Amino acid sequence: MRSVAGVPPTIAESPAGGAESSERDQISQNIAAVLEFYTREEENISLSQRALERFGRFVGQPVFLAVILTFVLLWACLNSMLSALNVVQFDPAPYIYLQGIVGLTALLTATVVLTKQNRLEKLAAQRAHLDLKVTLLTEQKAAKLIDLIEELRRDLPNVRDRHDPDAAALQKSMNPERVLAALDEHSDPANRP
Question: For the CA atoms of the chain, what is the radius of gyration?
Fold first, then answer.
């Protein structure tokens, strides 16, 4: 293994390079899987949902507030000017039509926001389910590692073999069905005090 004047050897050249390369491959695979998940979810969005979310992004901008305030101000000023010129107003002073337009806009805005929140909630539930699966898998792997370490401790002649009740308890992997049943029990509104 040679390094060029002051340049450290590459990971591939190092003895542990295989492990580091494997770790990088796993990280890349995980990132690719997450990106694929988000891409797939993005592709599943219908055209109407995309249009609603585009409108929702506009509604969420300060420009939208400025547009609404400008519209209301122009509406009121135009009606006041028509009244001052003794011309019949298109929406006299309690501004019933304006209230209807603003109410309809509020209804549409609330519907758009709720639609997007529902989609994001579904996505968050899928992520939480995936997190639970990963957590259970990690717990199983940790239990297996503890089991292997305890076996190694028993087999090594220079290590005193002793009973460790904590390690014995941690060696047993949790039953995923029992975990899910406990989660269901705690999330059921009928079981809440």
Answer: 32
Rounded-to-integer distance, Cα 119 and Cα 156, Å = 55
Q: What is the pTM of this model?
A: 0.57
The helix (run of H) or strand (run of E) holding residue 148 is: helix 96-155
For residue 191, give the DSSP letter.
G
Q: Which two tokens stand for residue 26?
A: 């796993």
Contact 113, 56 (CB under 8 A): yes
Residue 130 to residue 54: CA distance in whole angstroms: 28
**Which residue pairs from 6-13 have beta carbons closer than 8 angstroms and sit at least 24 positions apart in sequence?**
none
Q: What is the mean pLDDT of the chain?
A: 81
Contact by Cβ (8 Å): 174, 144: no
Query: How many Å apart are CA 111 and CA 115, to the nearest integer?
Result: 6
